[in-house]
Amino acid sequence: MNIFLVRLLTLCILATFVTCDPPAVPHKSNYNRKTKLVENAAGTPRGECPNDQYTGSGMVTSPNFPSNYGNGDSCAYFLTAPDGYVIQIQFITFTTEACCDFLYIYDGPSPIISPLLVRLAGSNLAKTVYSSSTRWMSMQFTSDQTNNMQGFQANFSSVDTANPCNRDVVIAIDGHSTLGTEANYHKQIAFAANTLVTNWTVGSTGIQVGPVLYFTDESEEFNLDDAQSVSDLQNLFNGFRQHPIAGQDLDSMEVAFSLVTGVVDTDFPFRQGWRTGIQRVLVMFLSFPPNDDADLQAAKVYTDKIISQGAIIVLVGLNSNVNITQMIPLSSGPNYVLGVNDVSQLNAAFATSISSALCQLPASTP
Ligand SMILES: *[C@@H]1O[C@H](CO)[C@@H](O)[C@H](O)[C@H]1NC(C)=O
Ligand SMILES: *[C@@H]1O[C@H](CO)[C@@H](O)[C@H](O)[C@H]1NC(C)=O
Ligand SMILES: *[C@@H]1O[C@H](CO)[C@@H](O)[C@H](O)[C@H]1NC(C)=O
Fold first, then answer.
1. Where is the domain boundary, 123, 140, 159?
2. Is the dihedral of CA 90, 96, 99, 100 positive or negative?
3. Are residues 317 and 179 part of one domain?
4. Same domain (yes/no): 267, 183
5. Least enclosed by CB within 10 Å: which of 31, 153, 246, 252?
6. What distance in Å separates the CA atoms of residue 174 and residue 285, rounded to the nearest whole number?
7. What residues make up the domain containing 326?
């Protein structure tokens, strides 16, 4: 055997031994602490894990970046967007050993429980953008015992990836005779189905939308995951009963809000499809005023509870019965109450105003 062949053989044997381990299963004990510099069997130190907690926007890198990562590294990264946003990450540079050194990106708060979005290895992945579907993204980087490379650097931000924004929305349709005519009721439905939601990114990676029809002391409702597209959603709206106006007299504002806020209440989660890590919004169409101050206060008990749970309440007055100023205390604030004098004024510009209102953040911003 000549020397060249021997070397080749040695390489092959080495390759069999040291490379291409099965993908390492992320290990919980590595989380929430920095990996110490430890000599591994091959004598190459492990990399020092960077911080593991990130919020808002910033930069994440592999261990030791811009120097090479170490051998046997295992580092976790937890990225959190403010309520109402999702995480988007973009790689500026990415180079790892293609067979064996992996970055796992999970669509959710934990590498243990969240679905895997993508497993990355190799190079030429720069500029690729990945998005979470909720406010959380987590990542796990693992390297094997040989061949360390530069690794990765990525910037992340808190963004909206859905149109008009990443929220889960209940749209409550008013079925009361205070709308005036049955034709008005149908105009309201047509507005919701054919104008308000036509531009929305409806579905599990965008906005989940659940329509509710409320009248007297009942409601008809659909789950948030019943509609996976705009046309699904339009069918749900159009599936509401045909003649809700006849005999549907107003009971009280208290009853209306007890019915409708129940579907947003986290203590009362009978509705399927709400996602955790996504802001909840109730858009409530109204055609009537409270009976009196006591009724307003009684309704406010329900809306206060919902708002204290972090949900947004947008109120939409459908006619001049509704005093916008009087409704502000039942909403998330003055910018969350809109109105028209008549349902015939429900148009595309007004739809855009509703979409903007529900995308506001009452609390923190990125
Ligand atoms: C990353 O940074 C670039 C350059 O500043 C920017 O254009 C891009 O939007 C950023 N991407 C993310 C996901 O933050
Ligand atoms: C609307 O409500 C506000 C606040 O309750 C009140 O001051 C105002 O007089 C009301 N407007 C009408 C037209 O009733
Ligand atoms: C739909 O989106 C287009 C383009 O962004 C915009 O011009 C239009 O006003 C939107 N329509 C509604 C009803 O929001």
1. 159
2. negative
3. yes
4. yes
5. 246
6. 6
7. 167-359
Determine, yes or no, domain membership for 64: yes
Residue type for position 100? C
> How far does residue 196's CA lie from ligand 3's centre (Å)?
9
Q: Is residue 366 part of a domain?
A: no
Is residue 262 helix, strand or coil?
coil
DSSP letter (8 states) at residue 133: S
Is the pLDDT at 225 greater than 70? The verdict is yes
What is the atom index within ligand 3 of the atom nearest the CA of 195? Answer: 13
If asked whether residues 264 and 286 sit together in one domain, one would say yes
How many whole angstroms separate alpha carbon 214 and alpha carbon 209? Answer: 16
Other beta carbons less than 10 A from residue 3's beta carbon:
7
Measured CA angle at 85 (ends 79, 89), to 5 deg: 45
Q: How many CA atoms lie within 13 A of 125 on its CB side?
A: 22
Same-domain pairing of 258 and 329? yes
DSSP letter at 12 equals: H
Tokens of 300: 């406010």
Is residue 17 over pLDDT 80? no
- Whether the predicted pLDDT of 23 surpasses 50: no
Q: Tell how strand 151-159 and strand 58-61 pair up.
A: antiparallel
The CATH number of residue 331's host domain is 3.40.50.410
Q: pLDDT digits over 48-68, tens only?
A: 899 899 999 999 999 999 999
Domain co-membership, 274 together with 150: no
Mean pLDDT of 24-37: 40
Boundary-marking domain end, from 111, 131, 159: 159
Q: How far is the CA of 217 from the centre of ligand 2 (A)?
A: 27
Least reliable range by pLDDT among 60-64, 263-267, 352-356? 263-267
Q: Distance from the CA of 326 to the center of ligand 2, in angstroms?
A: 6
Instruction: Please report the atom of ligand 3 found closest to the CA of residue 196.
Output: 13
Give pLDDT tens digits for 138-151. Answer: 999 999 999 999 99
User: pTM above 0.85?
Assistant: no
Nearest to 221 by CA among 168, 286, 270, 288: 270
323 lines ligand 2 (CB under 6 A): yes
